[in-house]
From TrEMBL:
The chain crosses the membrane at residues 6-24, 80-99, 125-147, 176-195, 207-224, 231-251, 263-280. GO terms for cellular component: plasma membrane. It comes from Marinobacterium halophilum. Its main location: membrane. It is found in: Cell inner membrane. GO terms for molecular function: transmembrane transporter activity. InterPro entries: ABC_transp_permease. It is a multi-pass membrane protein. It holds the Pfam family BPD_transp_2. This is Putative ABC transport system permease protein. Belongs to the binding-protein-dependent transport system permease family. AraH/RbsC subfamily.
Length: 295
């Protein structure tokens, strides 16, 4: 159940990464910092007495602001997108420490977004999974709808061919600002939910977030080859779940011998396989078609 819970939460990260890497064609490493910012803002505000829902919304706006900074550095000063996002991510490490006041905060005895539902009598481990699943799937459906609206299609056009998009009257820079704000807002929401469901926020909890999000996107795309935005968005969430399940199986299979210290190696292998297998499948189909033509 813990694997499903984390899988759904990182489904939000996958949606954010999909927006930048696939929709906008903007490699954005800010997510490593915005994930922690979401957790830090939510935790700090809840401890200071703010309503958990308001704290979570504030975390989303904090992550969106981080995305806007990255977009501003790139568009205003022509800083390479990767470098702009690295600069923002580096700055966020200090900002997050300032927000929390110390390297980690505990939320075990504090109210969270789950508190109003605890009176239902559902065991905590199931309540967490149900809550995050409903939130993530609802956001996924809204995102799929948004990307099929006129504004969403303009954003997709911006990533596909910015020159052509601008020639057709689309304000390209505006779409990049909006896309990065939305992407990092989703990632910050994931961080806020992670902190509240797990009972802590830590200054280093965002390390490797971009790799996990990208792995989920790649796994989902390799399994579901579709042009439908609804299928693509849901594939990101499913990819996140499958990725976390694969990690759990690898770490808990005694005959393999992996430990938690091998997590980065497992991640690299899974992402590598997800990238290699579609290519091998295409080559196999091409060889099969060539043999058929020869016959």
């Amino acid at each position: 159940m813990g694997t499903l819970e984390i899988g759904f939460i990182f489904g939000l990260v996958a949606l954010g990464v999909y927006l930048t890497f696939r929709v906008l064609d903007f490699p954005d490493l800010t997510v490593d910092g915005s994930f922690t910012m979401g957790a830090a803002l939510a935790a700090a505000l809840i401890i200071s007495g703010v309503n958990p829902y308001l704290a979570t919304i504030s975390a989303v706006f904090g992550g969106a602001a981080a995305g806007l900074v990255t977009a501003w550095l790139n568009l205003r000063f022509n800083i390479l997108h990767l470098l702009a996002s690295i600069l923002t991510m580096t700055a966020l490490y200090t900002i997050n420490l300032r927000i929390m006041g110390k390297p980690n905060l505990a939320l075990i005895m504090e109210p969270t977004v789950l508190s109003p539902f605890q009176s239902l009598g559902i065991p905590s481990m199931y309540l967490k999974v149900i809550f995050v699943a409903v939130v993530v799937i609802a956001i996924g459906l809204l995102l799929a709808w948004f990307l099929n609206t006129q504004y969403g299609m303009a954003m997709r056009a911006t990533g596909a061919n910015p020159r052509m998009a601008q020639a057709n009257g689309i304000v390209v820079n505006q779409k990049i600002y909006a896309g990065l704000a939305l992407s990092n807002g989703l990632v910050a929401l994931a961080g806020a939910l992670f902190a509240q469901t797990n009972g802590f926020a830590d200054s280093t909890m965002g390390v490797g977030t971009i790799v996990v999000g990208l792995a989920a996107v790649i796994v989902g795309e390799s399994l579901f080859n579709s042009r439908s935005m609804l299928v693509i968005v849901l594939s990101c969430i499913i990819g996140s779940l499958l990725y976390r399940l694969a990690i759990a199986v690898a770490l808990n299979a005694d005959f393999i011998g992996f430990t938690t210290s091998d997590l980065n190696l497992i991640t690299a292998v899974l992402v590598g396989l997800a990238l290699i297998l579609p290519q091998l499948r295409r080559e196999w189909k091409a060889r099969k078609a060539a043999k058929g033509d020869a016959a």
